[in-house]
Queue: 2 jobs
Job 1
Amino acid sequence: MGSIISPIREPLVTGNKTYNQITEDICAPTERAPSISWVIAFSVANVLAAVFLFTSAWTIWQGVGTWDLNRTIGWGWDITNFVWWIGIGHAGTLISAILLLFRQKWRTGVNRAAEAMTIFAVAVAGQFPLIHMGRAWFAFFVFPYPNTRGPLWVNFNSPLLWDVFAISTYATVSVLFWYVGLIPDLATVRDRARGFRKKIYGIFSFGWTGSAKHWQRWESLSLILAGLATPLVLSVHTIVSFDFATSVIPGWHTTIFPPYFVAGAIFSGFAMVQTLMIITRYVLKLQDYITIAHIESMNKVILLTGTMVGVAYLTEVFVAWYSGYIYEQFAFYNRAFGPYWFAYFAMMTCNLVSPQIFWFKKMRRNLYVTFIMSIFVNIGMWYERFVIIATTLARDYLPSSWSLYSPTWVEIGIFIGSIGVFFTLFLIFVRVAPVVAIAEIKHILKSSGDQYLEKQKEYVQKQQFSEKN
Amino acid sequence: MQSFSFAAGERKFFGICMIIGVISLIITYLTDDPLNSRFWSNILINASFFTGIAFITLFLYAAKILAYSGWHAQFKRIMESFYMFLGIGLIFMVVLGLGTVMGFHSLYEWNNEMLVSEDIIIQNKSAFLNPMWYMFATIVFGASWFFVARQLRALSLKEDKVGDIEFKVHKRMKVWAAIMLPLGGFTSAAAIWLWLMSLDAHWYSTLYGWYTGSSWLVASVAFLILTIIYLKERGYYPKVTDDHFHDLGKYLFAFSVFWAYLWFSQYMLIWYANIGEATVYYQTRLEYYPFIFYANVAINFILPFFVLLRNDTKRKKGTLIFVSIFVIIGHWLDKFLMVVPGVDYTTKKILSATNPEAAAEFSRLIMPGFLEFGVFIGFIGLFGYFVFTSLSKAPLVASKDPYLEESLHHHVV
Amino acid sequence: MANSKNVLFGLYNDDDILIDAIKTARNQKLDIMDVFTPFPVHGLDPALGLAESRIHIAGFVFGLIGAITAMGFMSWISVSDWPIIYGGKPYWPVLSFIPITFELTVLFSAVGMVIVFFTICGLGPGVTAKVLDPRITDDMFCIAFDVSNMEENEKAGLQKFFEETGASEINQKSI
């Protein structure tokens, strides 16, 4: 007997699959003509993506004046969206890297799609600082390079510059991690395809043959990339939190921000994974690979991180009182009872209160509840960033410069459009690449497939619970 | 199944440690300043450190149950013995609490009426920083943790007797584990603020609670590694292999990095924003305790990072013992650095107002001396004696644990 | 092609049978050219006696280069090339440099390792895979022998080996 699995674990691959069936099931969506529902979804996403293109082009053409930002509130929906998308982009790496290190086998069902989601979310997030620059064509100024303006360098003390490095590194490493994992599966698609498709997949699968030595290096590489990606994913949202926490703005300068942002990012990332996977597994008929056990595990992570975020919210409020620092106290009073009270209220209900429903096993395993909750969390986490950014800026030290902010149609268009860009990319992905990691599912089949668990149970029964004990 | 016998030599060893501790405490008490600040801060450092280790082991144990983690199932009895130490550790914390109520120590600035009366900032905090609440929180929070600890321990022992393939007992353990995580998450922060952060009564940091928790976590894993290695040397745990050590080594490595991450986040943000109220904490430490300040980072981050970066060092007992011992001392030094500067500040302030002669004689305790280490050794003796006693009371391996077979065949992929 | 090889290979339909077959081959001192599998089979490396991958060394070296590059470059700029005081911090505010140093360590290490991986494996866009059988990336496990310079009786011996170890198909192909 190979690896021993406790019978207390649920199967992660159901339906009595063979290796060949796994290949068939997962490759099939890339091989058949797109379904009507896909075409409709893709068209809608395309229209929204067009809205994104138009509104961001409008911004660049007319200037950032088309937004409602003002002298007090310099960051509004743009940076809110940026942080929101970056946060969503955390789940993929978390699932593949941290859960790999913690030996959570259920990650194999969802890691591929979650990693793809990460890349698309980071790509979308990256647009917001670019557009916000106004003169987006000068964006390369943010990189330190020898230039003709004398030895003029970027400010290495600025957290915004750290962000530039963090996000470009994160995007690069995520793409590498995802693509290295994808190569063997692309080879599987290649070996099933004919004609032109075979050529295309032949190019993208880099000549993979499945040689033993290649597999060994591939496993070693994946493991080290996971090891690197783990601190990397923590660092990215940490550095995003530094954008705020290094300042002296009350409500921003607080030391809990780094881990609290990371927890929030994981929270919102998992919510988005749930939103996508519940639909994907249904449309692509992957219920045997993304089982209710997977959904339940992710709901547990949502409950855990949601509660961690809750501890952080309450810590902040408590320490604001405890500090005896009136500006800090006012910042939190303003969040709850100021002009943007509804945002604070939405954040608290969606993030802290509503996930508590997942204490009940029935709710964790209910697809409708999970789907609705995932939308709630997405909304709540967007509001959290809005609360942190706009609400705080609206009421600073000087009452004479207090101000209010509400988004213009351009800002709303960019936000809604960014969702369209994200979904366009994701929908293309589910058409061209295997959504579930084929090789990894085959790897765990003999330890987590439902037909093998009965044998495991017999073995454990014999070893642990027979008469001799 | 194997059961552990607490050998006479071991009893003697831990007994001697405890005697060293008691003697050190007595000497500290006799040579102390009039407020006995060194004596009480010594107790606080160690009591909070070992209570914290017990608490965080319970937290980790609960988290492992909920996360379907199985590879540690063989030696989960050691973790159980660790967290049952809560019962002893909390006695010390309650004594410290009684001290705030009855005023037989003056560790906390907020507990001195004279100082508070002329300090508007501390007055504003008095709803939280007052002796009754300190006492109440210590007892209620501590009792709730201890209660969950006892439930989990009792169920774990019960499973040995009545466990079956349906794992009903384990499922009941899951309920208690699920209660423990939010309970521990919320209450530990408040306990840490009261016990430790309030020593610097003016200062505050939102990250302080998690930072302290991560420090306990590293120490807990280090103690776990040392205990397993020792028991394996004595011939127990034949099926604990290099693969288990590899994973324990990964924990030690990862949690050390995590601790460093929190250390950096807290320090860097305070340094960067440079707000007086916040920087004063590090200002004091850098000015008077530079050696410990840098040693803290060197021992607790740089050393485990570079030693355990390689895969083979995580599998060798020698390197693991080396790192574990250093890291335990390192995190104890971290606690020293958290406690002593605040206590010395308060003591000096009280003495200058009440006893100028003693104030003139009083000097900061820049480095832990023999007495500090003596008390530390005493607490190690107490902890070790307790852990070994409770190990000897139950089978060393939980024979009906659902994950036992997994743990016996554990391989690092 | 001048350097094409003549390969005799057997296909197995289960990974456990494959591992047993490899052990038999090693006992019989057969010179296995390569083994192809659809997924990383547990226990394959020890059975084949493959030396552990050293790719992590590349990761460490590249990471070190990244760290030194980042810290060195930022320090040179802030201390020597164009010193500016920002926010009352010293010219060499090492804490401020740690985030970028960390990022570049990870970036160099990851990119370097991936490049090394593709190079030593001979993989890349445009490389044509030498596929013995398309089912190898699906559900077949393959042991291959290089029979370019073999006598007929040796080949027969291999044939027999495949039959005895439970190969479901035995084929020959030039690649």
Job 2
Amino acid sequence: MIRLVKRPAPSRAWAWATPLLAVALTVAAGAAMFWALGSDPVAAIRTIFLDPLFDPRYASYSRPQLLVKAAPLVLIAVGLALGFRAGVWNIGAEGQYIMGALFGAGAGLALYPAETRAVFPLMVAAGALGGWAWAMIPAILRTRFGTNEILVSLLLVYVAENLLASMAVGPMRNPEGGGFPGSRNLSRWDAAANGELVAGTGLHWGVVANGELVAGTGLHWGVVAATLAVIAAYVLLHRHIRGVHIRLSGNAPRAARFAGIGPDRLVVFCLGVSGALAGLAGLFEVAGPAGQITIDFNVGYGFTAIIVAFLGRLHPVGIVFAGLLMALTYIGGELASFTLGIPAAAIQAFQGMLLFFLLAVDILVAYRPVLSLGRKAT
Amino acid sequence: MDLSAISPALLVASLMVAATPLLLAALGELVVERAGVLNLGVEGMMICGAICGFAAAVATGSPALGFAAAAAGGAALSLLFALLTQVLLSNQVATGLALTLFGLGLSSLLGQGYVGIKPPATARLDLGPLSDVPFLGRALLSHDPVVYLALALTLAVGLVLSRTRAGRSLRAVGENHDAAHALGLHVVAIRTGAIAFGGAMAGMGGAYLSLVRVPQWTEGMTAGAGWIALAIVVFASWRAGRVLLGAYLFGGVTVLQLNLQAAGAAIPVEVLSMSPYIATIVVLVAMSSRRRRATAPASLGATFHATG
């Protein structure tokens, strides 16, 4: 029978190899799932992972989408990973994402139809503030009353979804929208649009409304923010004392307390940062790809980002690769449902499976499987 | 607003119906947590139970078989969690989240062809003349069998945990798994059993939503009920009797807000719909204030590995 023996120190090689192994296992299990659904498994896997990048029919549309979809995932996951490392479980990023969009869009819509360069930066600040404030609710309840932040942050997602619905049909509804729910389209209003940056015809900020930093790349302000967040998180974790505190609190909470690290300040910091980043992701989405506040504005990036954070081994650089891969499954999944008729829900199950396999093979980092014959482990 | 349209007997009756899925799921999670395991996948197991039960009931025409299939589906999913956390020693918080995310995806995949179908009706328990007693008959004595099953299970779980040898073993594992292991208790087996029980109960809770409460299948129909069940366990300070109180309290909030919506209260619909979640948070805060904080099972959430 197979016994698990703890390694003297976690294996660095396996720490690199396990995410790749998990992806491979997920692809295999996914192929089996698609086969069970009655599709050609090879075609399905190729459509999801290769066609969006390499098939000339789809690549011109899909490649830019990769950055558009990866940006919010990476932005949120980087913040979540800081907390997960410190043992602070913010699983309500979806709610903070909604609040960021509501605050940001609200700030913008209040100034409509001003044509000044100040509108968009103001919206960005309001978006970050919205996400931060929403995350402060579980943070303060945890530090003041000891309430479990997992449950509070998650329950607040449902509150935020209801707020979103009431805003879309109430105060933020487009007065010229013929009574339909949904706000004005921000991406069609130059001063507020999070368009593609650096396009052929330069307008404000070198931005074309509904365009991109470099036309046809999907490069919008969210990508810039995600890149900055990754760099900042890397520096924080590896070059700054607060990063040491975060890692110590996660690995050895008692030692951290003896070292005089205030757990309360870390909770406020981690929830605050992840909330603000999720809020930013929401703002960039509402001012760009989504364009407007609608009842079904949120599509689950806040939850998928949890998978992204773990797949990236809670490391900022790893999260970039994980975010791109997860964005690819979104795009490939759309393509597969369009061309092969694979239901969209299959992709969601596929993403959940990835996290399962990841957690399952993670044991190889800290433990060594040993085959022992005949004798039962005592 | 016309409050007289709200009949007290019907209010109590619908309260019991609204509370039953929460009660089932929370009772299951109570047993899991008393064994020292934190399974955050209740929402995922509930929604898989909802679709498994719905599909089986539609296929066989029997709601009873539907509930059995839901219990089996929930338990199967929970055994995945048991494999990961008990054998492969993964982090329980992360694995529970994975279970919820996977369960939500899997359920909408399984539910592809079931949108818009009506399930076979679950018969009410016929108590003859008792169901005609004024008020009491209408409010308490004319429900389907699952409502009473949930109440009986509350009593059973409470008694088994406090009075039997099996219950004591389970609590020992939850309080100190190393000591329990030294005493010769099989920690992993006991925990796996508890996890499977929790999964079966969550699955039945989900099926109650899709077969009785709503009754139809829609994607994401549990809408956070699994998370509220988790909160009820904390509210109940890990005691079966208080789980009943918690479930009926939250059932009451849900029913009241639905009735206020129907009666056309001057409060916006969205504010009413978010009230159960806000009530849950408020109760969590009240229960966690230092004076009243109940002690959770000491080994809750900790990983156990018998180093040989």
